[in-house]
Q: What sequence folds into this?
């Protein structure tokens, strides 16, 4: 069963918005009350936690997604993964 708003999010996501800069991509966390869109750097694709979300998305939605990538998690969960990655990257300097 899909969360409310999934089809609407997917339709709106077929156009690349101006805030998605080179080296970034859009992701929408779709579980919970309201989907939330994030713009993330391509280096997230090497993050094991993010890769786990991609695997879950593949299992749940297949490879048929167009536009923004939908991941089956709550926005807060994706935010924590991204913040953890940012903190780790800032300590590597």
A:
């Amino acid at each position: 069963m899909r969360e409310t708003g999934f089809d609407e999010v997917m339709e709106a996501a077929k156009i690349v918005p101006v805030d998605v800069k080179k080296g970034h991509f859009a992701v929408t966390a779709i579980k919970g009350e309201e989907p939330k869109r994030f713009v993330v750097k391509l280096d997230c694709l090497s993050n094991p936690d993010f890769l786990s979300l991609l695997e879950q998305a593949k299992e749940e939605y297949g490879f048929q997604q167009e536009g923004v990538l939908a991941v089956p998690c709550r926005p807060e969960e994706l935010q924590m993964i991204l913040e953890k990655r940012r903190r780790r990257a800032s300590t590597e300097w």
The longest strand covers residues 24-29. Residues 6-91 form one domain. Residues 75-91 form the longest helix (17 residues). The chain has one domain: 6-91.
